[in-house]
Write a structure and sequence with these properties.
Structural class: alpha/beta
Strand order of the largest sheet: 1-4-5
Number of domains: 2
Largest sheet: 3 strands, parallel
Radius of gyration: 21 Å
Low-confidence stretches: 1-27, 287-293, 300-318
Shape: globular
Distance between the termini: 29 Å
Strand content: 5-15%
Number of strands: 9
């Protein structure tokens, strides 16, 4: 077991991220390389999309080099290998969601994926082992599909390794772990299907096994980042917020003309029987030709059903 007393708090982690630098080298070896703290000799970041550098629904070498893990490694003064993806990306980041399909950074790569970049210095290992879409169980296993949820990036990033196997290849002295968001986020983003939330006991078992495995390395310190409250992410807004924007009550904000919002989403102060103050609605634009895509209703029977978190959530979702 990795003792929590050996870990830095997330507050200290936030301070470390407060000062960032800029460099586009494939292997970043900063000026303070020879003066770094031995604690940071070998840093490995474990996680999913945010850690990997996915932004706006896409990932490429530019977004990867903006990952908090890369920025943190620069402040540590430690070398840091990243599995860089060619532009435009895999998939390319989205520029505009109000189109069918969404407009992405171009030119569009074959099959929607530009594959791995050929780096001047072939990485002997990876320091950022995070993979978009990873669940807590994914750290330990790439092959049990129902639990690991592998995808194309799992192979492009790690080859035949798991995140834990690659971490052990590095034998880190410092580790950051941000995993578990997808264990509840998927349930939210598909419209509130709480049956998709990872069982709490299964989540704890995967997380404990991960920590025990990390403890067998040379790690001397690290940061564990908890599961985010998915009801607070920008993907969700109160129904009353949708209603206010549609009715011109939010200066500077507007939906496309064909984007309709039902009065069921109004605040109770305006329409007493409305429920817009008490439900969260996912933002899910669809083609204008689809009646589902152009109408948002705050109703349990709505195709964009409000998300009501389950008590099974592994995170602090309220």
């Amino acid at each position: 077991m990795l003792r929590t007393t050996r870990l830095f708090g997330t507050a200290a982690f936030g301070i470390l991220l407060g000062v960032i630098g800029c460099n586009n080298e494939n292997l970043f070896t900063p000026a303070n390389y020879l003066t770094r703290d031995p604690l940071f000799d070998r840093y490995v970041s474990v996680g999913n999309s945010i850690t990997a550098g996915l932004q706006s629904g896409g990932i490429n070498d530019s977004t990867q080099l903006q990952s908090y893990a890369v920025l943190l490694s620069r402040q540590m003064g430690t070398p840091f290998f990243v599995p860089l993806m060619n532009k435009a990306g895999c998939p390319p980041p989205i520029i505009s969601v109000f189109s069918n399909p969404p407009i992405r950074v171009g030119p569009p790569p074959p099959n929607g994926c530009a594959l791995r970049e050929t780096q001047p210095v072939p990485p002997p290992y990876l320091n950022n082992v995070a993979v978009p879409g990873a669940y807590a169980y994914s750290i330990l296993d790439n092959f049990n599909t129902p639990l690991a949820h592998p995808n194309a990036l799992t192979t492009f990033f790690l080859g035949g390794y798991t995140q834990m196997e690659m971490l052990k290849k590095v034998d880190p002295t410092f580790v950051t772990v941000w995993i578990g968001n997808n264990d509840v986020l998927t349930a939210a983003t598909v419209g509130g299907d709480t049956t998709l939330i990872t069982d709490t006991l299964a989540f704890k078992a995967s997380y404990r096994t991960m920590l025990d495995s990390i403890a067998t390395t040379s790690v001397r310190g690290g940061v564990l980042i908890g599961v985010a409250n998915v009801t607070l992410i920008p993907f969700f807004s109160k129904g009353s917020t949708y209603w206010a924007i549609k009715n011109g009550l939010v200066p500077g904000a507007a939906f496309p003309p064909k984007f309709a919002v039902s009065n069921t989403c109004a605040p109770m102060a305006v329409i007493p029987i409305a429920i817009g103050d008490s439900v969260l609605v996912p933002f899910r634009p669809r083609p204008a030709a689809s009646p589902i895509s152009t109408r948002t209703r705050c109703s349990p029977r709505c195709p964009q059903a409000p998300f009501r978190p389950s008590r099974q959530s592994p995170g602090r979702v309220r």
